[in-house]
Amino acid sequence: MELRCLLLNIVFISVVNAMLAFGFVNQDEGRRCTYGRIEKLMRIRCHDMDLKEVPQNLKSSVEVLDLSYNRIRKLRSGSFQRYTDVKFLMLYENMILSVEPGTFEPLTALQEVDLSNNGLTTIPMELFQLPKLRNLYMDSNDLRELHQDLALLETPIRAPIEYLNVANCELHDIPDLGILPNLWQLNASSNPLSNFDMNKLGNLCHLRVIDLTKTQISPCSCQQVTNHLSALGASPQFVPVCMAEALDSNACPLNYNRTVDSPTFHSCLTSAELAETRGFWLFAAGCFGGSLLVLLVFCYCIHRWRKKRRNRRLSQAAQNRKHFVISPRNATNNRLEDQPLHCDTA
Ligand SMILES: *[C@@H]1O[C@H](CO)[C@@H](O)[C@H](O)[C@H]1NC(C)=O
Ligand SMILES: *[C@@H]1O[C@H](CO)[C@@H](O)[C@H](O)[C@H]1NC(C)=O
């Protein structure tokens, strides 16, 4: 089967090559976006095609959209209006400098977006309001305006962010997105993290992996991060490798009290629990509602069936009776049963 596929492919490629050689197909048309499936999701790859805009002629049911390695400079508010089913969006290695407000708003199914290696100066704030967004790659952008945009961000954010990559973004501190109860991996490597604020770790109660390599954080901050992660029960293999010799606790106090014992840490935990119990109750309510609906439909069907049967019987009875009813007075009488039948002598 696979061999046949391969042979067919080879034949196809040879035919296309021959056509190209003879000028039947021009080069541009030969480089169309390719359609396929990946784990049952509909994927369209428009990878490395010198695109300058998001193409608008693709199937709108696309779920995995790969626009990487192109020359897109700007994302417009209409760019993704047609593609509301997209769950995974690859935009890495473009030249994106700006994103119009509302660009990502229609993408309510979006779970992962990769905007790495572009020219962005901030993270489009609307991404944080997408209800399904879990993974966000922003690495290798110069996010020099992020700090001021985050000051206006409404927290807690709606997106259930689990993975955030802001490596190599010229950041002086880890971005403050408020409480992120689902975040388990944060990559902030290759940033000049000179203002690293330990207290922000209190927002990340489920953090398991943090990459702080090439960040110039102080040995004490490094030790405190390690300390925080150990207190969370993160496996030591994920703890940053920056710890040289353990510092004296006078020079570098343990920070449980500032992170794990902080009020933000506790509200992070409770909001995670809340989401879990809410999920459970939604599920339970769904099950209950579903069963109730099935029961109602069943009752209704039974009712309908009974009514039909009774009507059929009645009409049969009426028909049977009509043979005896000769008088027009009786024929128009509704209460046939109550009337003694009699023959009209007229
Ligand atoms: C963090 O991101 C950088 C740049 O994308 C990458 O090279 C590095 O492997 C990442 N670290 C981890 C732990 O994934
Ligand atoms: C700091 O945290 C430690 C460990 O959780 C605890 O034993 C200690 O009492 C705390 N100190 C203060 C001042 O809260």
TrEMBL record:
Top-level taxon of origin: Eukaryota
Gene name of this polypeptide: LOC117571997
Residue stretches spanning the membrane: 280-303
Keywords: Leucine-rich repeat, Membrane, Repeat, Signal, Transmembrane, Transmembrane helix
Full protein name: Tsukushi isoform X1
Signal peptide limits: 1-18
Annotated ranges, domain T cell CD4 receptor C-terminal region: 289-319
SMART domains: LRR_TYP (SM00369)
Matching InterPro entries: Dev_Immune_Receptor (IPR050328), Leu-rich_rpt (IPR001611), Leu-rich_rpt_typical-subtyp (IPR003591), LRR_dom_sf (IPR032675), Tcell_CD4_Cterm (IPR021963)
Lineage: Eukaryota, Metazoa, Ecdysozoa, Arthropoda, Hexapoda
PANTHER family in the cross-refs: PROTEIN SLIT-LIKE PROTEIN (PTHR24373:SF393), SLIT RELATED LEUCINE-RICH REPEAT NEURONAL PROTEIN (PTHR24373)
